[in-house]
Amino acid sequence: MTNKAEEETAELLIYGEIVSEQWFEDETAPKQFAESLAALNGKPLTLRINSPGGDVFAAQAIYNLLRDYPGAVTAKIDGLSASAATLITCAGDTVIMPSNALFMIHNPLTIAWGNAEEMRKTADKLDTVRDSIVNVYLKRVGGKTKADDIKAMMDAETWLTAQEALDYGFVDSIDNETPIEDSIKGNMLIMNNVACDLVKFKHGDKVRDILNQRQTPTNSPAIKPKEGGNKTMENQEKTNTLLQKIADKLGISEKPEPTAGNQSIEDAVKAERNRICNLESMLTGDKVIDGIINTAKSNGQTAEDIKPYIDAVTNARKEEPKDGAAEAIKDIITDNMQSGAEGVAAGAPPVDKKQAAIDEIVNIANGK
Predict the structure, then answer these.
(1) Coiled coil located at which positions (predicted)?
(2) DSSP notation for 300-319
C-alpha cells in the first residue's frame, strides 16, 4: 500500500490469490483489505490488480468495500484479472487495461460430495452465486452486453484481450504505453512476476494462442519491454534451484510434471476433484501443515507431491534431525541470501532481517 500523508492519492495492490483468510504475504483477504482501505481516509485510489482469482465470496466482500469507499477508485489491470479477481476489477469507477493484459470470466466452481439431493442443493447454490456475479458484470458493462451473453461467456470460460474487454464494456480504456512481462513455462503463466496455473482452467490453452498472436507482426507500434525482460524466468530458475537443494537435503526426489495433453475434459475435471478431496483429507489443524496443503491446492500439486514435505515437518518436530538436515537447509538459505538470490521474490526481507528470517524458517520446521 502506498499512502503518504503529503500525497493526495493512494495506491493498493492485489497481486496473487484472493482468499477468505490471509496466510501468505501475497494473498488478499477482506479483513486486511478493509483495514488498508479505512486508512486511506477517502483519498482517490488507484487499485492495481494482477490476480488469477480465488474465493468468490471474499472477492464479493472486497467489491462491496470498494463500492462503499467515498473516494474515486481507478482499477488498473497489471497483467491478469481472472475469475474472482474480475469482480474486484468491476468495482472501479474507471477501469484501465493495458493492451497486453488478460481478462477471464467463468462460472463459479466448488467441490461437493453427498447424495443426489445434496448435490442438487449445491448446484442450486452455485446458480445463485453465478447470478450474483452476473449482476456485478451487468452493472459494469452498462448495457453494452446482455445478461444472456454474459452467462454464455461464463459457461464457455472466456479469455478476453484488452480490445475485447473494452468492446464488451468490462473496461473503460486501453493503456498502450505500459509494458507487461509475460511468459509460459510448462502450465504456468507468469505475468509481471505473478504465477497462474493454467491447469486449473478449462480453456487455459486459449492463453497460449493469445500470446502467440502477439508475436505476429502487426501495423501497431510495438511496446518495448523493460530492460531485464528475462528477469522473471531467471528469478524462477533461481527459486527452483534453491528448492531443489532443500529437497535434496531432505531426500525428496523431484516428481516430473504430469502431462495432460491427451486427457479429456471429463477426465481432467474428475482428476481435479479427486486432487482437492485427497488434499483436504490431510488437513490436521496444524498451522504449518495446513499451510502447505492450502498452498498445494492453489498450485496444482497433489497429496502425493507434498507428503514428503509434511512428513519432514512432522519428523522434525519429534526430534532434531540426526542427519543435520535443518542446519544444512539453514546453510543453503544463508548461501542463497548472501549470493543475492533473495531478489528472486517480491518483498524480500531487508539485510538486517535476513538472519531472523533464516532462524524463523528453521524454527518452524523444528516446531520451536
Answers:
(1) none
(2) T--HHHHHHHHHHHHHHHHS
**Number of structural domains found in the chain:** 2
H/E stretch holding 268 reads: helix 265-280
| Grid cell locating 259 | 502431462
C-alpha grid cell, residue 265: 475434459
Q: Which of 167, 201, 227 is the last residue of a domain?
A: 227
Report the catalytic residues: 83, 106
For residue 115, give the 3-state DSSP assignment: coil
Considering the domain architecture, whether residues 297 and 333 belong to the same structural domain is answered as yes
Say yes or no to pLDDT of 338 above 90: no
User: 15 Cβ partners below 8 Å, 6+ apart?
Assistant: 26, 28, 48, 49, 50, 51, 78, 194, 346
Q: Against a cut of 0.70, is the pTM above it? A: no
The CA distance from 194 to 25, in Å, is 13
188-215 pLDDT tens trace = 777 776 777 776 777 767 777 777 776 5
Contacts of 215 (CB under 8 A, 6+ apart): none
The domain boundary residue, chosen from 194, 227, 260: 227
Domain extent for 19: 10-227
* Residue 167 lies inside a defined structural domain of this protein: yes
